[in-house]
Amino acid sequence: MESIVKAWRFAALLVLGGVCAYALHAWAYAPCLCILAVQSIGGSTDAASKAPTEYHTTLQARANLSRIAALERPCRMDIRLLMMKAANERLLGRREEALATYRGILQFEPRPEVYLAGGRTLSEMGRFDEAIEWYLPAVRFNPALQLDIDNFGEELGRRVRARLAGGR
């Protein structure tokens, strides 16, 4: 009888050890991995945007997207990683893909910087009416972002201010 109790205790300890190992991985190791990766890719994305040639920008942005793709599953809810994905897509001229990424982010995290980045992407594509629709929530969330929009274009900034004043 005593050996059966010991066997059950041992089995329970194995199960408990497995649960603890999973919890450590899911709630400690994976988030730390994401934080470190986001910091590293953030620096690489910044370097790509300031690269001396388009060739260097392209190489770095592609490398960044490869690293991001490997992290998308474990870091799927990290908005910073998704924002970097969209930024690198924009650096490669993949604006429709970047816009799709911004739309995906908005599904679970409607933040002003996402609206601002999506509006800027649309502005770069020459789709100004759509861009204004993205800029409006950004400025409603954070009125200081109007200055950023003004930097994208005086006419665009004026149109956003007019829409805000008109309440439409």
Brief synopsis:
By secondary structure, this protein is mostly helical. Helices cover 83% and strands 0% of the residues. The chain contains eight helices and no strands.
Description:
The chain is mainly α and 168 residues long. Helices cover 83% and strands 0% of the residues. The protein contains eight helices and no strands. The protein starts with a helix and ends with a helix. The model has no long low-confidence stretch (mean pLDDT 91).
Percent of residues in β-strands: under 5%
Cα shape:
elongated
Instruction: Give the helix level as a range of percent.
Output: over 70%
Mean pLDDT: 91
State the major sheet: none
Number of strands: 0
What is the gyration radius calculated from CA atoms? 23 Å
Low-confidence stretches: none
**What structural category arises from helix and sheet content?**
mainly alpha
Number of helices: 8
**Spatial gap, N to C terminus:** 78 Å
Task: Give the helices and strands as they follow along the chain.
Answer: HHHHHHHH
